[in-house]
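SEQUENCE-TO-STRUCTURE ENTRY
===========================
What this section holds: a protein sequence and its matching fold, both as plain text.
Tokens: labelled as protein backbone structure tokens, with as many entries as the chain has residues.
Question of interest: how does this chain fold, as expressed in backbone structure tokens?
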Amino acid sequence: MNKGDLIESVASQLNESKAHATKIVDAVLEGISQGVQRDGKVTITGFGSFERKERAARTGINPATRQPIEIKASRTINFRPSQSLKESLNEATV
């Protein structure tokens, strides 16, 4: 599922236009993004949590030249599904 599919799903579930569903999806994604930037973590009960992680600087290997290279420190985001989401995924496959 991509963003367009998600927008269509929201539009059909809420019986709204795609334009309105687009605003809803964009607002939710923006809220998650701002929450992670501001607080470092956003938890959605029954779904999961998004958490900002820090990656330390490290030495890597350039695969083309096999020479060591320095990889700068960076930030990334981690998603951890809730227990109920994990259970619902496992039920769907049985």
Remarks:
- The mean pLDDT is 94.
- Residues 59 and 70 are 5 Å apart (CA to CA).
